[in-house]
């Protein structure tokens, strides 16, 4: 099987019709979202969800985010505390996932939540929201990559990784945010950041008027099982906080500071020449894949500020550099 690719920018209605047809038959469809491409399937259909796990080679204890068309749809499946509701009002549609108590028997299949009594919910922008509205049911969608690999930010990335396993890939061009959603869990008065992502933690803190609690090592891994240490891994080793380039290395940099040995780099990728972290996030996964493809022994990455979207970028880079199992 080779996936059919439909461009939503030129054939939007055809894309919606074909995607709904494939989803109704219980198969996953790769779809563009503002964060990364998702491997979407009917969140109420156990065989459809099973196909997501099989296609990605994903462990089944790792729950999926359920994507909704609007808040009214989300309220049918999850209960909102007041702080989560404020976050939803401020950041939806957009790159924020809220972990909320699942309403029992509401229809989300336990395979999607890995049997937990909570559900991760996100309202995406644009085409993805329109597709969910047309389909009429929530779509469970992890990132559309083989488990443990770099997440896809273009239809080409998805085709290169999973094209032989899928029926349909929808092409919406490059994902505008480029890193996955920020995952938040509110527990009483405590607002916990389970995964830094496309909404900067500082923006959330400014809205709620207090600090979010950041993950502390292994606890975070149990809380969000997808956050395994060695994740987002290219084939080449990754070396962080590089201040020079060694022979055989590819370089990923931010800004234009001079770097020793840059002339011997196998290739140089600049995440953002002006040092803009949103631009850097949008380019991150594409450049990791491109740096991997030049046959470098290792990918050296210069230090990235840990503020704003830099926190999500550094989270993904640390995982990409983590020792492999
Ligand atoms: O931007 C995104 O979030 C993308 C797009 C496609 O929406 N999706 C995405 O999904 O990144 P995935 O499966 O790659 O990451 C979902 C993360 C995993 O780390 C999972 O463990 C966590 O969300 N998660 C999902 N449901 C959870 C729950 N009920 N409790 C705790 N963590 C949960
Ligand atoms: Mg993922």
UniProtKB/TrEMBL annotation:
L-threonine binds at residues 35, 67, 122, 141, 181. It catalyses: L-threonine + hydrogencarbonate + ATP = L-threonylcarbamoyladenylate + diphosphate + H2O. Its EC number is 2.7.7.87. The keyword ATP-binding applies. The keyword Nucleotide-binding applies. It is found in: Cytoplasm. One of its GO terms (cellular component) is cytoplasm. Gene3D superfamilies: DHBP synthase, Threonylcarbamoyl-AMP synthase, C-terminal domain. ATP binds at residues 58, 62, 118, 143, 151, 195, 232. PROSITE patterns: YRDC. Keywords: ATP-binding, Cytoplasm, Nucleotide-binding, Nucleotidyltransferase, Transferase, tRNA processing. One of its GO terms (biological process) is tRNA processing. One of its GO terms (molecular function) is double-stranded RNA binding. Residues 13-199 form the YrdC-like domain. Signal peptide: none annotated. NCBIfam families: L-threonylcarbamoyladenylate synthase (TIGR00057). Belongs to the SUA5 family. Required for the formation of a threonylcarbamoyl group on adenosine at position 37 (t(6)A37) in tRNAs that read codons beginning with adenine. This is Threonylcarbamoyl-AMP synthase. It comes from Rhizobium soli.
């Amino acid at each position: 099987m080779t996936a059919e690719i439909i461009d939503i920018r030129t054939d939007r209605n055809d894309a919606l019709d074909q995607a709904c047809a494939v989803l109704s038959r219980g198969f996953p469809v790769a779809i563009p979202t503002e964060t990364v491409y998702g491997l979407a399937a009917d969140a109420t259909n156990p065989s459809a969800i099973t196909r997501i796990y099989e296609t990605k080679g994903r462990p089944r204890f790792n729950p999926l985010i359920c994507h909704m068309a609007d808040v009214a749809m989300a309220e049918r499946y999850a209960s909102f505390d007041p702080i989560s509701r404020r976050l939803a009002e401020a950041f939806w549609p957009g790159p924020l996932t809220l972990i909320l108590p699942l309403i029992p028997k509401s229809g989300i299949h336990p395979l999607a939540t890995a049997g937990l009594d909570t559900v991760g919910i996100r309202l995406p922008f644009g085409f993805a929201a329109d597709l969910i509205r047309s389909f009429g049911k929530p779509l469970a969608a992890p990132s559309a990559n083989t488990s443990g690999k770099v997440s896809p930010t273009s239809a080409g990335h998805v085709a290169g990784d999973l094209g032989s396993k899928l029926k349909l890939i929808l092409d919406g061009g490059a994902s505008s945010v480029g890193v996955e959603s920020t995952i938040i869990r509110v527990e009483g008065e405590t607002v916990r950041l389970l995964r830094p992502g496309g909404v900067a933690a500082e923006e959330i803190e400014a809205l709620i008027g207090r600090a979010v609690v950041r993950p502390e090592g292994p606890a975070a891994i149990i809380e969000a099982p997808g956050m395994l240490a060695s994740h987002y891994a290219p084939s080449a080793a990754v070396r962080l906080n590089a201040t020079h380039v060694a022979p055989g290395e590819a370089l990923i940099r931010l800004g234009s500071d001079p770097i020793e040995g840059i002339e011997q780099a196998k290739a140089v990728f600049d995440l953002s020449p002006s040092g803009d972290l949103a631009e850097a996030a949008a380019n991150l996964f594409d450049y990791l894949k491109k740096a991997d493809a030049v046959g470098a022994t290792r990918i050296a990455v210069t230090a990235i500020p840990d503020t704003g979207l830099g926190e999500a970028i550094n989270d993904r880079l640390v995982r990409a550099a983590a020792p492999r199992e």
